[in-house]
Design goal:
Elements: E1 2-6, E2 11-16, H1 24-28, E3 33-38, H2 43-52, E4 57-61, H3 70-82, E5 90-95, H4 97-109, E6 115-120, H5 123-129, E7 134-139, E8 142-149, E9 154-157, H6 167-184, H7 186-191, H8 201-218, H9 233-242, H10 250-261, H11 265-277, H12 288-296, E10 301-302, E11 305-311, E12 317-323, H13 324-329
Parallel strand pairs: 2-9, 3-4, 3-5, 5-6, 6-9
Antiparallel strand pairs: 1-2, 7-8, 10-11, 11-12
Helix pairs in contact: 3-4, 5-6, 5-8, 6-8, 6-10, 9-10, 9-12
């Protein structure tokens, strides 16, 4: 299945097919490539890719958010220089959100920009982070504070690679699909209220991608509508920073962020029931003052206020400016 993303300056495909990892060479041909992955990606997946490009260098970073930093970025860029990569060559990212984010940023900055292809291997990256051209690294404990908009040449999604994900990782990524349903598609949200939701995983991923595609095409640079995709992320990013990116996963923090911001008690209850089924936390013990301090440094903050996303009716998210004092009150 193919979905095309059409931005102002570029059109690129999102290919979805079981077994697609074995066919990457068909999309790239004989171009020179530089492969980037992390040690959390099963070795067999890295080998499948390496066998298709036996002469390509593969840079493997440690798994985890801590790798999304200047030190790793510098190391990748130096390795690309050592591999004699030119502006005509291609970076190929194989991994989850961290790999995709830093690989895309490396591609955006190396020689003022070269092509890259994203092969997401987690539910989180297949549903959300691999699509839309946001690339970034973290700085001084603040999530995605340095980055660039740089659209990929293609996104290649192989549903089969999800089979090796631990349950917690798998469910963590599904939070972004739940979010997409809450802001844009009531029927997508309702899929998670059915106990057989796992039977619909391909449909869930496809629906989530189509939502993000539409939003990105309308607002590539996040001037308006694309901000809706940040539902739960203002608190979520603060929770991630507060816990040092290691106690909770990104999706878990977004889930707690959605629960923190929601005012509609019925929606909040329905969301909490879904989170319980997925064994996702709905609250935490973070210090309220510290969370507000972290929010003040968020990209969406405006000194004494911040733009958040609110949902009063499932499928109809909207933007709202909220004072920092109200953000603190929301924490209970």
């Amino acid at each position: 299945m193919r979905i095309e993303v059409k931005t102002k300056d570029k059109t690129y495909p999102i290919e979805m097919e079981r077994g697609l990892l074995y066919k990457v060479k068909e999309f790239i041909g004989n171009e020179q490539v530089f492969l980037i992955s992390d040690d959390g990606v099963p070795e067999k997946y890295r080998n499948i890719l390496q066998e298709q490009f036996p002469n390509a260098h593969m840079y493997v970073m440690p798994q985890g958010e801590a790798s999304k930093c200047f030190q790793t970025l510098e190391s990748i860029l130096k390795a690309m220089l050592d591999a004699n990569m030119t502006r005509n060559d291609i970076v190929v990212a194989l991994g989850g959100g961290v790999v995709g984010d830093i690989s895309g940023f490396a591609a955006a900055t190396y020689m003022r920009g070269i092509r890259y292809i994203n092969i997401p291997t987690t539910t989180l990256s297949q549903i959300d982070s691999s699509i839309g051209g946001k690339t970034a690294i973290d700085l001084d404990g603040y999530k995605n504070s340095v980055g660039a908009f740089w659209q990929p040449e293609a996104v290649l999604i192989d549903f089969d690679v999800l089979n090796t994900l631990p349950e917690r990782h798998f469910n963590n990524g599904l939070v972004e699909a739940i979010k997409a349903g809450l802001i844009k598609d009531e029927k997508l949200f309702e899929l998670f209220e059915d106990e057989s939701y796992l039977e619909h995983i391909e449909e869930i991923i496809e629906k989530s991608i189509r939502i993000k595609k539409e939003v990105v095409e309308n607002d590539e640079r996040e001037k308006g509508e694309r901000k809706l995709l940040n539902f739960g992320h203002t608190y979520g990013h603060a929770y991630e920073s507060y816990y040092g990116f290691d106690r909770y996963y990104h999706g878990e923090c977004v889930a707690m962020g959605m629960m923190s911001i929601l005012k509609n008690e019925e929606i909040k209850s329905r969301l909490e029931n879904i989170l319980q089924r997925l064994h996702i936390p709905s609250s935490c013990d973070a210090d309220k003052d510290e969370i507000v301090r972290l929010i003040k440094n968020d990209k969406k903050a405006k000194h004494d206020a911040v733009t958040i996303v609110q949902v009063d009716e499932i499928g109809k998210g909207y933007l709202q400016d909220v004072s920092m004092e109200e953000m603190r009150r929301n924490l209970g």
